[in-house]
Amino acid sequence: MKLNKSIVALTSLVAFAATPLFAGTGKTFKETVVVEEEESSWYNAALSTGWDSLYMFRGVNVLRGDDNYGSGLYWTDASFTWNISDNDFLTVGSWVAFGTQNAANGYKEFDAYTKYTHTIGDLSLGLGYTFYYVFSEPELFANELNASVAYAFELGGVTITPSATYFFNLGPDFENLEDQTGSVPTASSFLQLRVDASIPLYKEIVSLAPWVGFGLNFDYNSKPDSQGAVRSFDGANNLEGGLAIPVKINDVITVSGYGAYSYAFYNLGGVTEPSTFWGGAKVTFAF
Q1: Which of 7, 35, 201, 256 is the most exposed place for a label (fewest CB within 10 A)?
Q2: With bands split at pLDDT 50, 70 and 90, how would you rate the model's confidence at 179?
Q3: What is the pTM of this model?
Q4: DSSP code per residue over 95-130
Q5: How many independent structural domains does the chain possess?
Q6: Which of 258, 238, 240, 256 is nearest to 248 (CA)?
Q7: The domain that contains 179 carries what CATH number?
């Protein structure tokens, strides 16, 4: 979320994507039924845990302190997806995070989210809600809606997925000076345009996962004005890109490391330099 010097930013995440399995063709009816029972499932679940060298959220370096450029973040995410039909999925999950050093000491955050996804061929449409809560003095929380669209296609064995996600903050407002519970202005929003790719390297075990993104801010993040006061703004937010290397250990476990770069068009939140590099790693258990 937008970061004033005395207000902590919050995070978001992408819900676990479920892919339905289909029985093969050219089998007898009995064989087809058996394959469906063995391969299809009415649910998917995932547990991920990882570490990021900086807490970068929508272009903002969230955990920058007075004497350092930011602290690391350890996080864990758990999600469950109900495969309602071959084309409809409902995901619920939670995300918890802890600051790891320096200015992040004592930082704790809990998020809960849900997302409904409908697919039409290679097109995915999603609607979701996220609740953010930061354990601080004063406590900070936010309620956010999101809508997304993504389309996946293959090009020479490479899967490319352009997407757009729009985030809308329901409140409370950060100008609530009595309770000090809001993080960004009510009705502020953020648009994330992104292109992801998956490039297989070795069978189905190792792949490259590059991405590039562009953020548009609508009264959501803030920047210093000519007088030095940090105020919200409308317009281009940041350009971002990165590369992850997922390695599939087995059918359940995948490990991944990544490096990323963000170019901010402004000193976002008064705490983010124009060029920022960071990275991290995670392990995912999928069931």
Answers
A1: 201
A2: low
A3: 0.85
A4: EEEEE-SGGGTT-EEEEEEEEEEEEETTEEEEEEEE
A5: 1
A6: 256
A7: 2.40.230.20
